[in-house]
Write a structure and sequence with these properties.
It is an enzyme of class 1 (oxidoreductase). Keywords: 4Fe-4S, Iron, Iron-sulfur, Metal-binding, Nickel, Oxidoreductase. The protein has 27 helices and 20 strands. It is α/β, with parallel strands linked by helices. The strands form six sheets. The protein has a six-stranded parallel β-sheet with strand order 8-7-6-9-10-11, sandwiched between helices. Strands 15-14-13-16-17-20 form a six-stranded parallel β-sheet, sandwiched between helices. It has a two-stranded antiparallel sheet with strand order 1-2. Helix 12 packs across helix 17. The structure holds FE(4)-NI(1)-S(5) CLUSTER with Oxygen. The site of FE(4)-NI(1)-S(5) CLUSTER with Oxygen (BF8) has 16 residues, from helix 14, helix 21 and helix 24.
């Protein structure tokens, strides 16, 4: 590895490391091609940022007022206002968690308002997820008899909206409806039950501004409180609302990877997180009018490909092929074969537009929160949804018309395509195993040793997608079933690990389980907000086993942490008693072992700081029964996960 960071006890890759280790040949091919062509990507900008700031890397820079910025270290243990080191680290952490909460919250808000518009007949959208509407209504104790599905959906949407924005101390109703009793009691004892997503954002910013709390432990409590708001108001809010609108996904076979793009077809990429407008755009693309328009433009057909979480929504529901994730978005456009990219909200990096401009790719933005200079803007507004059909048709027309302007001399499409079985909603997983009892039995008898949910973003701090794929290969070899979402799932989909054929790479127990059911050892459950599907599975399996969640053989793994949204995912699972294994040190100083002066040469002080000790030692563990393990080397990370699962099984008396 090219860049050594002794302060983190870790290294970061250089260009050669990325090209050598990135597992998808298509990514390597495009990274090399774009470099040769002089097209700038994240890899160039990442190298230009080296060496990175040691204060920022460890969360030691305080920028929460205009007295500073203050950089803290062993010599300067307080900022100008007197704020101490641990308070600065925790304030930075909890602020990034609520930034992620805000992002998922805005996503949930759009989908919930769309349900209201659909229920009131303002938007031409059928409520395809009747099963989910009734299920959530029943859990909330709402009256369903004698009411239309639209009336019930409207009332459920009102509850979801209130959970997002309530300011009074009424517990989040979705939390009360879905969280296990044992956990609710734990959170009540800890005093970390949240009010709503919006309230916890306000309270976090309030607590951490100049002259706010100087007790870092109160920020660890706020971290848990905000994570629970993040989980039950924004993740559940987005995931359940999307299922109410568009239905619960079911397993299906699809083809993914860069090779789905075709030279002689119109190629349209959809990108972002909220699937509302793209559902309509997809509907329009499939109409005879738009298909005919493509033929007239000289195309043999239309390919729609997905990126990031919007891509995963369409993949799960309709088998629409996906191409790549956040760090692949520039590469996908670098094929020179994309006529239009339609983006909604989040994880759309500005670098994408730079590459789009190099290849003449048309960019269409559809969300007022995510504007890009030079893009065509056709926004969806759920409070004024009447124009949705017309706008979606406009986008479809523009996307197809762009085919005529493509510069064919610049096309470079890798040939790789990969088969995958997708659509693993909570219900699909449970049904596949013949109910919770069936899956629990496989866990008890050890054919499946444990379940790891391996999720999250990419980061340039590890070789692109290398940690995701290496860890998961090792886990399935050890009979650990994997669920996945987000950018990680794109890496695993493209690596073939979500195909039933990947059963051959699994250990004997998992292999038998997969082969007898015709399923893959890695289940792609959807976009990041659909981590709720795995969480519900963990909750219900623990309940079925009659065991508290922290005792179950489950692990949360984030091999390539990147976005602020990822912080809340990890803390959500921690709050439920599920330990985290993280693939690169987060913004907390890493305790570094040092020889003890005057002692024997093999005697080391293991090093410590209060915040790292809290998360990785006993502080958090004593509160919720889980801790964070950080391991940047993926084979060692897999070993840690296996060790955690083995320990849990031994304690449960499962062989
Ligand atoms: O929500 S995994 S980079 S795409 S934040 Fe973004 Fe991270 Fe990718 Fe979807 Ni999730």
């Amino acid at each position: 590895m090219k860049y050594s960071y002794p302060i983190l006890n870790a290294e970061m890759p250089g260009r050669e490391d990325v090209l050598r280790l990135t597992p998808n040949p298509a990514s390597k091919d495009l990274l090399e091609y774009l470099h040769q062509e002089g097209v700038e990507t994240w890899l160039d900008r990442y190298e230009a940022q080296q060496p990175m700031c040691g204060y920022g890397l460890r969360g030691l820079c305080c920028r929460m007022c205009q007295w500073g910025p203050c950089r803290l270290d062993n010599k300067r243990q307080r900022g100008i206002c007197g704020r101490d080191l641990s308070t600065v680290i925790m304030a930075n952490l909890v602020r990034s968690l609520v930034a992620g909460l805000a992002a998922h919250g805005r996503h949930a808000h759009e989908v919930i308002l769309t349900i209201m518009a659909a229920a009131e007949g303002k938007a031409n959208l059928p409520l395809k997820g009747e099963e989910r509407v009734l299920d959530v209504a029943n859990r909330l104790g709402l009256t369903t008899d004698g009411r239309t599905i639209k009336e019930i959906a409207r009332e459920v949407a009102e509850v979801l909206l209130e959970d997002l924005g309530r300011l009074t101390m009424t517990p989040i109703r979705i939390l009360t409806a879905y969280a296990p009793r044992e956990r609710i009691e734990t959170w009540q004892t800890l005093g970390v039950l949240p009010r709503s997503g919006a309230y916890e954002i306000m309270e976090t910013l309030h607590m951490t501004t100049l002259g706010g709390t100087s007790d870092w432990t109160s920020l660890t409590e706020q971290e848990l409180r905000a994570a629970l708001a993040y989980c039950y108001s924004t993740l559940f809010g987005s995931s359940l609302a999307t299922e109410m609108l568009f239905g619960i996904p079911r397993p299906k076979v699809a083809t993914v990877n860069y090779g789905i793009l075709k030279e002689d077809h119109v190629n349209i990429l959809i990108h972002g997180h909220s699937p509302v407008m793209v559902e309509k755009i997809l509907e329009k693309i499939r109409t005879p009018e738009i298909q005919e328009l493509a033929r007239k433009a000289g195309a043999k057909g239309i390919v729609v490909g997905g990126m990031c979480c919007t891509g995963e929504e369409l993949l799960a529901r309709y088998g629409v092929p996906t191409v790549t994730n956040i760090m692949g978005q520039e590469l996908a456009l670098g094929t020179g074969a994309v006529d239009t990219v339609v983006v909604d909200m989040q994880c759309v990096i500005p670098g994408m537009k730079i590459v789009a401009d190099c290849f003449g790719t048309q960019v269409i933005t559809t969300c007022n929160s995510n504007r890009i200079p030079g893009a065509i803007h056709i926004p969806f507004d759920p409070e004024n949804p009447e124009g949705l059909d017309e706008d979606a048709l406009k986008v479809a027309r523009l996307a197809v018309e762009a085919f005529a302007h493509r510069d064919r001399s610049k096309m470079h499409i890798p040939r790789e395509t990969t088969e995958a079985m997708v659509g693993w909603s909570y219900e699909a997983i449970v049904d596949t195993f013949g109910g919770l009892k069936g899956l629990l039995e496989l866990l008890r008898e050890g054919k499946i040793k444990g379940i790891a949910t391996v999720v999250g973003c990419n980061t340039p701090k590890v070789p692109y997608e290398f940690n995701h794929v290496t860890i998961v290969r090792r886990l399935i070899e050890s009979d650990i079933l994997v669920t996945t979402t987000g950018c990680c799932s794109h890496a695993l989909l493209n690596a073939g690990l979500c195909s039933p054929a990947a059963a051959s790479q699994a250990g004997p127990g998992l292999q038998e389980v997969c082969r007898s059911r015709g399923i893959p050892p890695v289940l792609a459950v959807g976009g990041c907000v659909d981590n709720t599907r795995t969480l519900r599975l963990f909750i219900d399996l623990a309940e079925e086993a009659g065991v508290a969640m922290p005792k179950m053989p489950f692990v949360f793994v984030g091999p390539e942490p990147g976005n602020e949204k990822t912080v809340g995912q990890g803390v959500t699972f921690l709050a439920h008693g599920i330990s985290n294994v993280i693939g690169f040190p987060g913004p907390i100083p890493v305790p570094l072992p040092r020889p003890v002066a005057g002692a024997a040469p093999d005697e080391y002080d293991r090093g410590s700081n209060p915040v790292a000790d809290f998360f990785a030692g006993d502080g958090l563990y004593e509160k919720v029964g889980a801790r964070i393990y950080t391991e940047p080397y993926p084979k060692l990370a897999a070993q840690t996960i296996r060790m955690l699962i083995r320990r849990q099984r031994l304690a449960l008396g499962w062989k």
